[in-house]
Amino acid sequence: MPVLEYGKTKVNVDDEGYLVNFDDWNEDVARALAEKEGIEELTEEKMEILRFIREYYRKFNYFPILNAICHHVNQPNNCVTTQFVSPVVAWKLAGLPKPDDMIINILQGETPD
Predict the structure, then answer these.
(1) Contact, 43 vs 30, CB < 8 A?
(2) Number of domains forming the structure of the chain
(3) Which of 17, 52, 105, 112 has the fewest Cβ atoms within 10 angstroms?
């Protein structure tokens, strides 16, 4: 199983870079995941989004509606795509378990067949 290292932090990830254990996430892990995704900096605005996504997922076991994320963190309606390009990337950086193909399609704006 691949290991993601960031400073003194080491966590297990799957072959696609998703955290294996939801509880291994912290802001340093998010930074390491972001680096792997080519995101140079996790600003406070980005971290607010990731923290909200995690808390919502912890409570409801599902990714929140994109506009709801932005509303709850007091950012513009398209904050997730503006900050992360893709909601799938935000999902990964928030340390959520790998989504199935249906969820990926929904997050990418595709409608299920």
Answers:
(1) no
(2) 1
(3) 112
